[in-house]
Amino acid sequence: MTTEVQVSAADPQAAYLEELVRHGLLIPMGVPGLYGRSGLFEEVVERFDAAISRHGREDGAEVMRFPPAVNRRDFETSEYLKSFPHLAGTVHSFDGSERDHHTLLRRLEEGEDWTAMQKATDVVMTPAACYPIYPTIAKRGTLPAEGALVDVFSYCFRHEPSLDPARMQLFRMREYVRVGTPEQVMSFRESWLQRGRALMESLGVPLEIDLANDPFFGRAGKMLSANQRDQGLKFELLIPITSTEKPTACLSFNYHQEHFGHLWDIRTPDGELAHTACVGFGMERVALALFKHHGFDPREWPAPVRALLWGRD
Ligand code: AMP
Ligand code: ZN
After folding, report:
1. Are residues 142 and 281 in the same domain?
2. Of the ligands numbered here, which is closest to the C-alpha atom of 130?
3. Of 171, 234, 235, 256, which is best to mutate to test ligand 1, by the most ligand atoms within 8 angstroms of its C-beta?
4. Cα–Cα dist 87/170, whole Å
5. Hey, whose CA ends up nearest to atom 14 of ligand 1?
6. Which of 124, 148, 180 is the last residue of a domain?
7. Tens digit of each residue's pLDDT (9 = 90 or more) over 119-141
8. DSSP class of residue 273?
9. pLDDT tens-digit series, residues 22-50
10. Which DSSP letter does residue 103 get?
């Protein structure tokens, strides 16, 4: 017997969301894209996280864990606002007098906009787990000959409210980030394209890897997207979750060339600008793909998939 969800509703994304909520895996919080997770959902995320670690262990990446936010100055330096102003989330806080406080409370009571009484803090939500890495590596000075390889894992914020459960506003990204010469960075990405495919194939989900582009903002963004595709800078591993025609990007393989090296002046020992690449695993998306293809009860998942996730570390 299969517990695979039969999506028949007009909107298969909303229908899958409804199923996930009914099975208690996602807990609605009243805003599209903002959910609690059940213990079972978290267990799948944790087991997948451990499987990633096993696949990457031999490389000896340096582990760093950051809160889901970055320093506002670093965020400005990253030029994120040039490309994705529509996705950014800044943290604001009240910083006024007692009188301002009264005004704030009055506006709140009267259902008026009170948020204008808030001021931007020095904290910005991180849009991708790798963002705190670049300034951190830059502060260490010139790279050693072997470059740098970092393992990061963080909740990330993107303002893209949606009824698609695979498009959340707060979601987790596990990443490996490589900083070094173009050769080091390219060979890193190549090896993760293969490992990522092998890992996901062993989880028994249908997949394909394809050229991709980021959702750059505005008219200039169209050119950036085309350029990114022409140069083969981004690949995604896609798994059908709520649509076979439009499968969902669950892993990303990004080559930034010298973009971040230039912004933070990260140099290799020969004085050249460092290149960077990252492989990002969308943890919720992978969990959603597993529940979709193997059913809502992991005890009934295929034995090899169970062994891979729940086997020895
Ligand atoms: P990106 O930096 O856009 O390539 O994102 C890296 C990975 O994060 C993607 O491959 C997705 O698996 C995941 N991801 C991106 N945006 C979202 C989102 N809104 N909700 C859930 N996962 C996401
Ligand atoms: Zn990244």
Report:
1. yes
2. 2
3. 171
4. 11
5. 282
6. 124
7. 999 999 999 999 999 999 999 99
8. B
9. 999 999 999 999 999 999 999 999 999 99
10. H
